[in-house]
Specification:
The complex is a heterodimer of chains A (300) and B (99). The longest helix of chain A has 19 residues. Chain A is α/β, with parallel strands linked by helices and 300 residues long. Chain A starts with 11 loop residues before the first strand and ends in an 8-residue tail after the last helix. Chain A has twelve helices and ten strands. Chain A has two domains: 236 residues, Phosphoenolpyruvate-binding domains (TIM Barrel, Alpha-Beta Barrel); 49 residues, no CATH class. Chain B has one domain: Ribosomal Protein S5, domain 2 (2-Layer Sandwich), CATH 3.30.230.10. Chain B is built from two helices and four strands. The chains are: A alpha/beta (300), B alpha+beta (99). The interface between A and B is medium-sized, with 21 and 24 residues.
Chain lengths: 300, 99
């Protein structure tokens, strides 16, 4: 089972409340890479049923123009999540986000329910991917086994609100309380070859603070950030746009690796830097980011 | 599907509609209020009636206050109100009764 969308570009994932038709009818105009259609925290308890009907028909009828459609289901400690999965899979979602993931078994439990739903609604096996939100100290500690839990899992995301509560610290705005979790999660995700996403920034009046935070998580190796407002999208995309210098270098690396491979040469230099096959994936990612950002017009 | 009690779904926010379904004895009575009734009234009625027929609702008094809802929202709100009014709590037949 191999889903080509597992490693798609996910710089921005915008949260949208399924209870609100005005939010889910045309979010593609803001050009996020993914949208997170929420059945969980954003939806009032007595509107859980209404949110599901809205979700199903939105997935069936709205053309989201290539934007990935991730559905956040209710927690595994509720009696809602199984029907959430049936609804999302029947509707045609691309991925399921598991909230409050603490163990690899949580992911496997959801994976089993997704596979059942794929059979019930005649979708190809493996067509629905999974991402896991880590929202507790236990979840973060178990990041490595969670990342390794399922072939369907494309990434993990830090959920800062619940995580800071579990740590018994307030959210400072400096990110100091998330330092350990962020570093640990990125390393685990990279070790398992899955993606890693940062938590939301909720202070919409402090766009400068938001920009600084995105610069930090970009430098740390995160693949993208969860977003709560369309205004945040261009900031993230700008920071994730590779520099002209790095795009030119990546292009040379890819072309040289392919040429030298055919000649049986494993190690060589590009612009004075020693290069081998280990640089290939990184260079490919730089080109993919450059294409998505509209700054690469080459032939790769 | 038997409508057992009065139930409401949706809101009066922009892009939404509020659907109220009540028990009735003979057929479907549909009342529609919309700022775009001249352009879309017929379409809204058609979507609502088709949805009710698919759900098997034969007798009900239905009121829709539309605030510019898309067809997918009208369907979702009618279904939700009907399911609540019928006190339906089983597994949902996604792709069958709901589509």
């Amino acid at each position: 089972m191999s889903n080509p969308d597992k490693y798609r570009l996910r710089r921005t994932m915008m949260f949208l409340n399924c209870q609100k038709p005005s939010l889910i009818k045309d979010p593609y105009v803001y050009k996020p890479d993914s949208i997170m259609l929420d059945l969980e925290d954003a939806v009032a308890e007595r509107e859980k049923d209404a949110a599901r009907y809205s979700l199903y028909h939105a997935l069936q009828e709205i053309d989201y123009r290539g934007v990935e459609r991730v559905v956040r289901i209710n927690g595994l400690d509720t009696n809602l999540w199984r029907e959430d999965i049936r609804c999302a899979v029947a509707g045609g979602c691309d991925s399921i986000r598991i909230p409050k993931t603490e163990t690899a078994d949580d992911v496997r439990t959801v994976e089993y329910a997704i596979a059942e739903a794929e059979r019930e609604f005649s979708r190809p096996e493996g067509s629905v991917l999974i991402m896991a939100a880590l929202e507790s100290a236990r979840g973060v500690i178990n990041a490595m086994s969670i990342c390794d839990s399922s072939e369907r899992l494309f990434g993990i995301a830090l959920s800062g609100g619940d995580y800071s509560k579990d740590l018994q610290v307030p959210i400072s705005g400096t990110g100091v309380e998330f330092m350990g979790a962020r570093q640990h999660m990125v390393i685990a995700a990279r070790a398992a070859k899955v993606q890693c996403f940062d938590t939301v920034w909720t202070n919409l009046d402090d766009m400068e603070g938001f920009r600084k935070e995105v610069e930090v998580i970009h430098a740390m190796g995160f693949d993208g950030k969860s977003i709560v407002n369309p205004r945040q999208i261009p900031v993230v995309h700008e920071i994730y746009t590779p520099s002209e210098k790095s795009v030119i270098f990546a292009e040379k690396v890819i072309k040289e690796i392919e040429t030298k491979k055919a000649q049986g040469i494993g190690v060589f230099t590009v612009d004075g830097k020693m290069i081998d096959i280990a640089f290939y994936d990184g260079a490919k990612r730089t080109i993919a980011l450059a294409k998505a950002s509209g700054v690469y017009k080459g032939d790769l | 599907m038997e409508i057992k009690k009065t139930a409401v779904a949706g809101t009066l926010e922009s892009s939404d509609c509020m659907v109220t379904i009540e028990p009735a004895k003979k057929g479907i009575e549909l009342e529609l209020e919309s700022s775009v009734i001249r352009q879309y009234g017929r379409q809204i009625r058609k979507v609502a009636l088709t949805t009710l027929r698919r759900l098997g609702v034969r007798n009900a008094r239905v009121s829709i206050v539309d605030k510019g809802a898309l067809d997918c929202t009208i369907k979702a709100r009618v279904e939700c109100a009907a399911m609540r009014a019928a006190e339906y709590e089983g597994r949902i037949n996604w792709g069958g009764m709901i589509r």
